[in-house]
Amino acid sequence: MNVLTITGYKPMELGIFNSNDKRIPYIKETIKRRLLPLIEDGIEWILISGQAGVELWAAEVVLELQLEYDIKLAVIPPFTNQEQRWKEDLQLVYQEIVEQADFYEPLVKKEYEGPHQFKIKDKWLIQKSDACLILYEPENEGTPKFFLEEVKRQNKPNFQLFYITSFDLDDTFRDMELNSSNFIE
């Protein structure tokens, strides 16, 4: 397994509406905890489409991990200027990630034309990767369900899915809170 796609919810699907939300560090730490064993097992490339939320948070984690690990980040948006309608602070984060990525190239050299571009993106990511790390809960469908539906359609026998669930996020929260507290015994 050499290439891993990371995807998941957009911020608003998690009820996150600003970049200072106190839950983001817990999400990023959970991504890091799930990513480290995969890197140690041989992942060389991380692919994202650069969508806001889990993908950009994962990119920040990967860029941080590049200081210690030999991994590369590729940002492959479905079309050009995908960040065009985002809030300015989010556009800046996206631009910083794109500038630091080891590879960047939109799949389609046009601006947004329709939802078919997202289907093309999902197909491409699945074809080019060996596995996917996805923050997703079946009972809270959201946009990641379209990626998972495409995984089923492509029927790639050795394609692995690694999930991050609310249980993983809760574990990270408890660990981080426990470690940050100064308990007197």
From TrEMBL:
Pfam families: YpsA (PF06908)
Stored Gene3D superfamilies: 3.40.50.450
Superkingdom as given in the UniProt entry: Bacteria
InterPro entries noted in UniProt: YspA
Similarity comment: Belongs to the UPF0398 family.
Descriptive protein name: UPF0398 protein HNQ94_000695
